[in-house]
Amino acid sequence: MAEARPGIFAQMAEVREIAVDGSADLDRRLREATTPFIVRGLIADWPMVQAGRQSSRAAREFIQRHARDLPFAVSVGTPDSRGRLFYDDTHAMNFQMLRARLPEIFARIDANEGAADAHAIYLASIDLHQFFTGLHEANHVDLGERTPLASIWMGTRTRIAAHNDVPDNLACVAVGRRRFTVFPRDQFRNLYLGPVDNTPAGRAVSMVDFHDPDYAAHPRFREALEHAQVAELEAGDALYIPAMWWHHVEGLSDFNVLVNYWWRESPRWLGQPQDALNHAMLAIRDLPADEKQHWRDMFDHYVFTNGPEVVEHIPETARGVLAPLTPDSAGRLRAFLLRALSR
Description:
Helices cover 28% and strands 22% of the residues. It has helices spanning 22-32, 47-54, 56-65, 102-112, 128-131, 135-138, 221-226, 273-283, 289-305, 327-341; strands at residues 13-14, 37-39, 72-77, 84-85, 95-100, 121-127, 149-155, 158-163, 168-175, 178-183, 229-233, 238-241, 246-251, 256-263. The relative contact order is 0.16.
């Protein structure tokens, strides 16, 4: 039975649960969904889940049998971080990034399991195909024609600050328990995002400590909580998080394993929107106000509205990148940008 939710989590609405009837039904649900949902027991028959139900050590032994002899990237926190992998008082990271073989990492987790002052140990977004042999084949979700990135996340009790990801995400709890707190895309202003160029894992994160919110420093966080939903997941459960939804993630057991699948419905040859935002900070943000307004209008004309008036006066064969992009025209545009940025 799940323990009572503490603090702000106790009053949150729960993420809706659905039942799915096979891979075709899951595919349909994923295509139609615009909000998160939970599927209880979606991966309950995985061998990895079964091993974890024996014990966390049995789960580690099962996973280790499939590991390649490669160095794994691992984050190691300080004992006073209480599992929160975040910034320290100087705004440096409060954890070290190390590299070690998986047996060495798991031996460290074995030695510290159950200790109140144990260091947080976290292996984040480890590629299942690159670092393991046969683990994906024995433990995976059929996602139809999608070609997702499959990753495994393993570690002790941890708290990962609210952030979002560009792809859609199916997060499957294989061992332990996790709590996800999710927010719609438009709540970014109320989450008090930190730096975009100095981040714990590549995405800007909320500066709010969800276990001890400072409402004097972050008053709009109360508004974010009005839109928050919480998902308490046991081993075997899965959570769908639509692209760009914010999510705060906690590993609640002494040992936790998550397998997630990321995919984009847009073609892979399209650029990354975050790159465009970063470039706009470089090129537009600090211009005089009247010039910024002009570029706002230009972006609306060419990007956000992109109506027929943009190209109807240009012969179809001469529209270049103003026409719908193809892999070839996207490649030419990318090459043009690289040349421009290298000047």
